[in-house]
C-alpha cells in the first residue's frame, strides 16, 4: 500500500478550478481569500471585456460561494460563468461552469439536474479537449450515484477513476476516489477494507498538501474506528484535527459533516445529551446552507438521541416515518435504510407506511437520466 501512496503523491495537489488570473491560488487557500480575489479579478475582466477570463474568475467565485454554503449566490455565479464562456466560444470554460452547476445541484439534492449538468460537462470537456474537466465531471457523476446509495452502478467507475488518477499522478483525485470507495466499504460493513483505504487517502493527501482531502479522510477514519473498535477518544481527536483544517479554509459543508460525525461518535458511546447538542448544531448549519442530505442525516441522529433521552416512542416513530418519506423524495437509498435500522434499534418499528409510493430499499433510485449518464461514462477518454 505504501508504494502506491508514494507513487500517487509525487506531485502536490492542485486546484484546476482556479484558473486564469487565479491560477496561482493553492488548493488550501481559504475560501474568503478565493472569493475576494475572484470578485476583484472578475470585475477587472468585465472592464476589459475579456469573456474567457470572466468565465474563469466566475468559476472560482461560484465554487467559493458553493463551499461557503451561499447557495443562491453560487447558482447565479456558475450561470454567469457559463454565459461568459459561451459568448467567448470556449467549450472548456463552458464545461467547467456546467461542472460547478452540477456539483451545486448534487449538494442541493437535485439529483436529476446534477446528472444532466455533469454529463453535459463531461461531453463538452471532451469536445473542448479539456481532459481535466472531463475527469472531474465523470467523478461528479460517480459521486452522485454513490451518495444515492446505488453502489452497483458506480463502484466500477470509482475504481476506474482511481486507476486513472494514479496513472496521471493526480493526488487530489486519487484521494477523492480512495475515500469514495472506502465509504462504500464502510456502508456495507467491510470495516477493515474501509479503514485501509481511508488511511491511504489521508496519507496521500498529507504528502500532497491537500488539507481538504486530508480532513475528509480523517473524518472517515474516525467513523470506522468508532463503529468498529469503539475508540471514542481517538475518533474525537481525529475529528478535532479535521475541524481545524475545515475552519482554516472555511469549509462550511465539511465542517457541518464533521459536527454530525462527532454526534455519531458520541451517540455510539452512549453520551446522548452531548450527541443531541452536536446533531442540533449540525442541523442548523445544514439548514442554513440549504443542504437536504446533511439536514436529513442530522435529523436522524437527533431523533435517535432524543429517543435515548426519554422522548415518547410514538413521537419518535412518527418523525422517523416522516423522515423516511423525505429521504424517498430526495432519492437517498442508503440513508432510507438507516431510518429503518434506527426504528428497529429504538424499538419503534415497523414504521407506518407514509412513503407515498417512494422507492423501497431494494428498488433502483437513480433517475433514468442518471443511469444513462453512468452507463455512458468513458474513462478511456481521459487518456
Amino acid at each position: 500500500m505504501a508504494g502506491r501512496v508514494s507513487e500517487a503523491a509525487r506531485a502536490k495537489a492542485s486546484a484546476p478550478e482556479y484558473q486564469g488570473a487565479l491560477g496561482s491560488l493553492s488548493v488550501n487557500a481559504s475560501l474568503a481569500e478565493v472569493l475576494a480575489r475572484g470578485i476583484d479579478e472578475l470585475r477587472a475582466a468585465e472592464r476589459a471585456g475579456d469573456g474567457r477570463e470572466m468565465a474563469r474568475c466566475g468559476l472560482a467565485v461560484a465554487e467559493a460561494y458553493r463551499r461557503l454554503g451561499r447557495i443562491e449566490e453560487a447558482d447565479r455565479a456558475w450561470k454567469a460563468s457559463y454565459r461568459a464562456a459561451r459568448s467567448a466560444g470556449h467549450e472548456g470554460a463552458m464545461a467547467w461552469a456546467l461542472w460547478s452547476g452540477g456539483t451545486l445541484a448534487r449538494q442541493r439534492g437535485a439529483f436529476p439536474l446534477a446528472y444532466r449538468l455533469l454529463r453535459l460537462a463531461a461531453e463538452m470537456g471532451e469536445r473542448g479537449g479539456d481532459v481535466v474537466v472531463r475527469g472531474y465531471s465523470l467523478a461528479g457523476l460517480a459521486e452522485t450515484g454513490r451518495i444515492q446509495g446505488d453502489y452497483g452502478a458506480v463502484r466500477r467507475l470509482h475504481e476506474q477513476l482511481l486507476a486513472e488518477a494514479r496513472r496521471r499522478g493526480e493526488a487530489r483525485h486519487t484521494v477523492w476516489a480512495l475515500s469514495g470507495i472506502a465509504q462504500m466499504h464502510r456502508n456495507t460493513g467491510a470495516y477493515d477494507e474501509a479503514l485501509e483505504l481511508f488511511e491511504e487517502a489521508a496519507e496521500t493527501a498529507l504528502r500532497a498538501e491537500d488539507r481538504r482531502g486530508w480532513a475528509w479522510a480523517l473524518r472517515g477514519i474516525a467513523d470506522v474506528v468508532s463503529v468498529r473498535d469503539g475508540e471514542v477518544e481517538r475518533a474525537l481527536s481525529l475529528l478535532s484535527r479535521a475541524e481545524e483544517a475545515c475552519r482554516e479554509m472555511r469549509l462550511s459543508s465539511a465542517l457541518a459533516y464533521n459536527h454530525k460525525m462527532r454526534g455519531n461518535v458520541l451517540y455510539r458511546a452512549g453520551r446522548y445529551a452531548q450527541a443531541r447538542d452536536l446533531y442540533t448544531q449540525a442541523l442548523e448549519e445544514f439548514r442554513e446552507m440549504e443542504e437536504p442530505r446533511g439536514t436529513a442525516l442530522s435529523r436522524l441522529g437527533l431523533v435517535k438521541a432524543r429517543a435515548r433521552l426519554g422522548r415518547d416512542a410514538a413521537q419518535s416513530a412518527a418523525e422517523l416515518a416522516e423522515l423516511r418519506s423525505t429521504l424517498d423524495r430526495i432519492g437517498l437509498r442508503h440513508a432510507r435504510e438507516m431510518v429503518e435500522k434506527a426504528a428497529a434499534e429504538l424499538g419503534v418499528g415497523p414504521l407506518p407506511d407514509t412513503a407515498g409510493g417512494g422507492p423501497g430499499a431494494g428498488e433502483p433510485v437513480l433517475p433514468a437520466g442518471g443511469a444513462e449518464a453512468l452507463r455512458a461514462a468513458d474513462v478511456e477518454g481521459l487518456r
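Confidence is low (pLDDT under 50) at residues 1-9, 355-362. Residues 211-229 form the longest helix (19 residues).
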